[in-house]
Amino acid sequence: MSTAAVDPGLLSDKSRSVGGNGCCAHKNGPGYATPIEAMSGPRESLIYVTCVYNGTGKQKPDYLATVDLDPNSPTYSEVIHRLPMPYVNDELHHSGWNTCSSCHGDPSAVRRFLVLSSLLSSRIYVIDTEKNPRAPQLHKVVEPADIEQKTGLAFPHTSHCLASGEIMVSCLGDKDGNAAGNGFLLLDSEFNVKGRWEKPGHSPAFGYDFWYQPRHKTMISSSWGAPCAFRGGFNLQHVSDGLYGRHLNVYSWPDGELKQTLDLGNTGLLPLETRFLHDPSKDTGFVGSALSSNMVRFFKTSEGSWDHEVVISVQPLKVKNWILPEMPGLITDFLISLDDRYLYFVNWLHGDVRQYNIEDPKKPVLSGQVWVGGLIQKGSAVIAEAEDGTELQFEVPAIQGKRLRGGPQMIQLSLDGKRLYVTNSLFSAWDQQFYPEIVEKGSHMLQINVDTEKGGLTVNPDFFVDFGNEPDGPSLAHEMRYPGGDCTSDIWI
Predict the structure, then answer these.
(1) In sequence order, what are the beta bridge partners of 242?
(2) Could you tell me which residues come within 8 angstroms of residue 39 by beta carbon, excluding any fewer than 6 positions away?
(3) Cβ-based neighbour number of residue 490 at 10 Å
(4) What is d(CA 449, CA 344) in angstroms, rounded to the nearest whole number?
(5) Helices (H), 7-160
(6) Cis before residue 254, ω within 30 degrees of 0?
(7) pTM greater than 0.70 (yes/no)
(8) At a CB cut-off of 8 Å and minimum separation 6, what does 206 contact?
(9) pLDDT of 7-36, one tens digit each?
(10) What integer is the mean pLDDT of 349-377?
(11) In sequence order, what are the beta bridge partners of 466?
(12) Alpha-carbon span 4 to 2, nearest angstrom
């Protein structure tokens, strides 16, 4: 199904080069020449948010919301447009652009199309944001049958543009939800299914997120779990049964040969979001291990192989009135500021957002922390036990008279690093299990002010988007993207 034919001229491959470091031969392509230059880009005025009805009991299609971020606008902090998808039961999840700063030197490349992956239906939607950025339109649908027939892949997750003009999408399993069927889908510049990226026989045990660093000729991917396990909710027994990952997979770039597998062990259970430092010369990155609640640094050794170490540990809390005697923080998302100075992550269950100074990546220093939800906030049934044995609950302030629901989940940082946006839905089946209130009453979106000089985080009381008040009923808000790119979608070469 396609709502419009693709104009080949919009994504011409004439001045792109697959070899070398990419397509940079001229000037004034999409994005910015360097991450530091991007920090001087214009302040964000719009953000696109994937919103989910799947799993909420409403037979409504998921949609892409446009939120006004301009503080001088009369519709500031409001949803100003909703683009429903043509089907139900998709579970819109993560997204990426058809091109980014990796093609900054190519004037023929245009950051026009947002690629939306549907985690459960396996559809991929292509959204045109150029005609009217405030009201984007559906451009094309890549059907799951086409993907499965040509590649055997399903359950698409992360998408990144390549300097060749292609789009690469990690897929977490086969159509039956078996992890053994996962790999990397390639779409051409017109969003046709081209094939698989990795070499035959070089698929990892599990799939999830990925990031490439061309100067080091390396791509590293992480491993959530088998779709047949996670799609029905989280079962701790499935970890023991080997249905969840604990590995990082190191590939040669761009040829797709699996060179090394890093076993993170019990300190790296469920490694999710994966980021290299933005400086393309650096050979260091991080991955957040959700269940172990550790931030793991990966790096190149003097011998040219890759290794890892735990650099931040969030200790589990002893709790009462919960399903387990101890509660992990559950690091579900993190990002790095464009100057590679600060790292931010969330603890979805504990309820805090953290800022670390990583000027020395080997020794992150906590520089900011704010509580914006969680299962242990004051007024909840769950009670933690402090080290001295006293009972503990965290103070979570109401915003605009609204008690904060759920826990912080997806985050996005402004280009200048001064504003952090936060949503609170992880995945509808897991939301229902751990935070049924947000399934019933809807998600919300917050803005956190960042002190980029001394470090520190404070909630902006003037910004609150309540997805509980949507026209078709409460929805679950997940990932966020700016029209001009951001620190989790742009890769420099």
Answers:
(1) none
(2) 338, 339, 415, 416, 417
(3) 26
(4) 13
(5) 35-38, 144-151
(6) yes
(7) yes
(8) 172, 179, 182, 223, 224, 225, 226, 244, 245, 247
(9) 333 333 333 333 333 333 345 799 999 999
(10) 98
(11) 444
(12) 5
